[in-house]
Amino acid sequence: MLTVPVTSFRWFPFLGDGTLVRPLALYPLALLLSLLLIQWRRGKIKLNWAGALIPLGALILFIVAVTSFGALIDPIPLRGQIYSGRAIRAIATLFIGLSFFISAMWMNKNEEDLRFTIRWLFAGLCLDLAWSGLQAVTFYTSLLKKEMVTHWQLAFSMRELVRTNRISGLAYEPAWLAGQLATIFIPFLFASLLTNFHITRLKWLEPVLLAFSLLTVLATYSRGGLLITAAASGLTFLFLGRDVMRTIWKWFIHGFRGRLIDILFRVGMLGVIVGILVGSFLFLGQKNFFRRLWETDAKSLNEYVVAINAGARSAYSSGALAAFEEYPLTGVGLGASGFYIYQNLPDWALTTVPEIAKQLNPQNRLYPNPKNLYVRLLAETGLIGFFLFFAFQFYILGDMLSLLRRQETWTRFAAVAGTFAWLAIALYNLTQDSLTTPNLWLVPGILAGLSFTSSYKEIK
């Protein structure tokens, strides 16, 4: 949990510079899984075998099967990459992601385990926020030299400081940091605020961390991260925060019937909220690529997508879908969608998107990817794999919501955090296609472990 924020750790053997997803947490994770399995074999601990492993196992078996079938298709090699190499690499990354899910599931059985996990998760968040603050000082003051801080960052990361003065924290890039905050950290902080459940005796800790996390999301200037955070928090509050919403509304309305000081206090609160929204809008508007969302003269959807710097992502996804159209049921095998992208790029992308022109340069050796997990699943595992993936996702959501039946404060806290994370991950997958990142697996694994133990106790 402490090392989760570091997403692109430099010191991994046998990996080329093109491998950007390098979670530092993989090192302690390997040690943890080894210790758990040894303890289990000796009969000293019992491991959770949650029901979520059934749809997940079906998905894994199908992926292995269609990847084997993809060897029969054997697409033409691309820039030195062959099918077998990409398939082995993709299967390996999938099992790395699964190891995060299984370890989180095995390490969380009850309230005590949950508190232990989140304490260390918050410790990692504090390190991430501290490094983000250091970057902010470097970007916006003259106290630290950018060159010096860049050398510090390159000591552990694959990437130097972002030249556009966007905060990236301990992650590879600002969008990764925003996605990490939205899918792992903010869910627990938001749930604490909504349920009044605190991990430590410091009741101010979660609100302060939430405030700094939201400020950091703003400082990333990540459009996707901001939209994911706003949408997930709004939907979670709508579905699971109605009692809180009703209480706040009654308190707010009742104040206008009382003393003048109460009325002024509520009007002042409204002013503060409006001021925060306007200030955030003005702050984000400082960046040109953010202003392009509303300052554009595009006359078609394609022109608008290119104008807001989303043309390359859209083109890659469109190219990958050609593989799905050719093999709609089974796809072309895990990791193989990149072989079909360049030859199926839409015409508009060839002349209007500079990034595409750069990628098509014969000297470029990068292997393309769809930039969208759902598109990748359709292209590489077909409709069957796509639906199996969603069967697993909705099973996890059911596990999360089942915790509400116990009507305890800590289980409601876990359910709210899990729902927030589930919604955020569902939206986050629209902007990334990696199965390795812990963002997809940690919180669902935690909730699967808690739900299994809770259901077992009810049956018993």
Structure description:
- With 460 residues, the protein is mostly helical.
- The protein has a domain at 26-242 and 387-459.
- Helices cover 67% and strands 0% of the residues.
- The chain contains 19 helices and no strands.
- It has helices at 26-41, 53-73, 83-106, 111-140, 146-154, 174-195, 205-220, 223-240, 242-255, 260-284, 288-291, 301-307, 311-326, 338-341, 347-352, 354-359, 373-402, 409-428, 442-459.
- Helix 8 (223-240) runs antiparallel to helix 18 (409-428) and helix 17 runs parallel beside helix 19 (442-459).
- It is globular, with a radius of gyration of 23 Å.
- The two termini are 32 Å apart.
- The model has no long low-confidence stretch (mean pLDDT 89).
Residue share in β-strands: under 5%
Low-confidence stretches: none
Largest sheet: none
Summarize the helix and strand pattern as letters. HHHHHHHHHHHHHHHHHHH
The helical percent reads 55-70%
Which structural category do the helix and sheet elements fall into? mainly alpha
User: So what's the oligomer here?
Assistant: single chain
Compute the gyration radius: what is it? 23 Å
Gross morphology:
globular
Number of helices: 19
How many beta-strand runs?
A: 0
The whole-number mean of residue pLDDT values reads: 89
Termini, distance in Å? 32 Å
Note the main attributes of this structure.
460 residues; single chain; globular
What's the layout of helices and strands?
Layout: H1 26-41, H2 53-73, H3 83-106, H4 111-140, H5 146-154, H6 174-195, H7 205-220, H8 223-240, H9 242-255, H10 260-284, H11 288-291, H12 301-307, H13 311-326, H14 338-341, H15 347-352, H16 354-359, H17 373-402, H18 409-428, H19 442-459
Helix pairs in contact: 1-3, 2-3, 2-17, 3-19, 4-7, 6-7, 6-8, 6-18, 8-18, 13-17, 17-18, 17-19
